[in-house]
Amino acid sequence: MTQAVEIKSEDVLHALKDVQDPELGKPLVELGMIQDVKACGGNVSLTVVLTTPACPLRETIENDVRTAINQLPGVEKIDLNITANVSQGVRDGAIDLKQIKNVIAVASGKGGVGKSTVSTNLALALARHGARVGLLDADVYGPNIPLMLGIEQAPQPEGQSLKPAVAYSLKVMSMGFFLKEGEPVIWRGPMLHGAVRQLLGEVEWGPLDYLIVDLPPGTGDVQLSLSQSISMTGAVIVSTPQDVALQDVRKGMAMFRKVGVPILGIVENMSGYVCPSCHHEEEIFGRGGAERESQVQDVPFLGTIPIDMKIRIGGDTGKPIVAESPDHPVAKKFMDLASELAASVSRSNFAQAQLMMPPVS
Ligand SMILES: Nc1ncnc2c1ncn2[C@@H]1O[C@H](COP(=O)(O)OP(=O)(O)OP(=O)(O)O)[C@@H](O)[C@H]1O
Ligand SMILES: [Mg+2]
Predict the structure, then answer these.
(1) CATH code of the domain made up of 103-350
(2) Contact 300, 262 (CB under 8 A)
(3) CB-based burial of residue 77 (10 Å sphere; 0-12 exposed, 13-18 middle, 19+ buried)?
(4) Per mean pLDDT, which range of 38-47, 187-196, 291-300 is the poorest?
(5) Domain locations in the chain?
(6) What integer pLDDT is reported at residue 1 of this predicted model?
(7) Secondary structure class of 28 (helix, strand, coil)
(8) What is the pLDDT of residues 296-353, one digit of tens each?
(9) What is the pLDDT of residues 62-104, one digit of tens each?
(10) Cβ atoms < 10 Å from Cβ of 272
(11) CA distance 29 to 12
(12) How far does the centroid of ligand 1 lie from the alpha carbon of residue 118, in Å?
């Protein structure tokens, strides 16, 4: 009679030694992503801790781990638990943001390209993937987020503390909550700087994996204030596909680079239009310009969002497409976009952490 092989947890770790995180290019074991390994008879149990719940390569990683463990003689059952612990992107800055792991600015060189629409739906998509997400509307000149999320009641301060509004599963704060409707506000530099700092540092955000910041268009004071107040994770640039918009993209990227903010990627919005009646596709603003630009600039391309009436109606009625019609093909595009962004955040945070590690002597 053959003796049953007894598997030990060290054997499991050894079997996994060459399985890499495809995004970070390092073994999962070395990255501390394999935890709670237990072996009992032919049963193996373990936890894989991903760097984001929105990981686009979740299935690949799971398959690679299962395949490697199955190579061990005697394995009968693998009990694999997958969780995530989002990596830290925010570092020490003028404002202490201890509970916020990543601050991601959504910017564009040009107005009206869909920053607020993309910010809102990206934030909702990250939350649907299972992340804790906040959305800060820092567009002092035209705050649209309350409207886009259907928030009618501004949050009221309770004594000294200001809690964000909650819409769907997002924590939301907006300059719009403090301005009178229809009244223009002339912001002077120091006032603006103070307001940005208050919205970041004095709001009780609680623990967040990602805080998405919707910026006004261009390369003005808010952008500067933000980069001076915190060391943010990075910026996402939204563009339409045509050349004039791309010219402004270059300006926007140059500004972020100058102040040391990593570019996490480019999104091409309003990329093609599919007629809902005849399904003919029209490339109203062209297509592929932003993707080509991302190659030239050597930054990640996060994906495309088409022109779709449901997106516009969702924005105008406070019922964003990702929350209200999650099975719509465009909502799925936002889910993929969120995964690509989360992966880019993980890569950028990993690269920054490597840079800060003391050299091995
Ligand atoms: N992919 C899309 N399909 C259809 N409509 C869209 C799409 N993206 C944005 N829109 C619509 O275009 C208009 C402008 O979008 P949005 O307000 O998001 O742009 P913005 O870049 O934030 O503008 P601003 O520079 O003024 O802040 C809105 O009415 C929005 O609903
Ligand atoms: Mg906007």
Answers:
(1) 3.40.50.300
(2) no
(3) exposed
(4) 187-196
(5) 9-84, 103-350
(6) 47
(7) coil
(8) 889 999 999 999 999 999 999 999 999 999 999 999 999 999 999 999 999 999 998 8
(9) 999 999 999 999 999 999 999 999 999 988 777 888 799 999 9
(10) 19
(11) 10
(12) 8
**Same fold for the pair 9-84 and 103-350:** no
**What is the atom index within ligand 1 of the atom nearest the CA of 314?**
31
Please indicate, yes or no, whether the overall pTM of this predicted structure exceeds 0.90.
yes
Of 18, 192, 201, 15, nearest in space to 103 by CA? 201
In this structure, the residues whose C-beta lies within 6 A of any atom of ligand 1 are 108, 111-117, 139, 142, 144, 217, 269-270, 305, 307-308, 311-312, 315
What six digits make up the tokens of 332?
């799925």
CA 285 to ligand 1 centroid distance, Å:
14
Domain 9-84: CATH class, spelled out: alpha beta
CA of 235 to the centre of ligand 2 (A): 15
Tell me, what DSSP letter sits at residue 104?
A: E
Q: Whose CA is nearest to atom 30 of ligand 1?
A: 312
Asked if 252 contacts 266 with a C-beta cutoff of 8 angstroms, the reply is no
Distance between CA 204 and CA 272 in Å, rounded? Answer: 40
According to DSSP, the β-strands at 170-174 and 165-167 are: antiparallel
The whole-chain average pLDDT of the chain stands at 90
Pairing of strands 26-27, 20-21: antiparallel
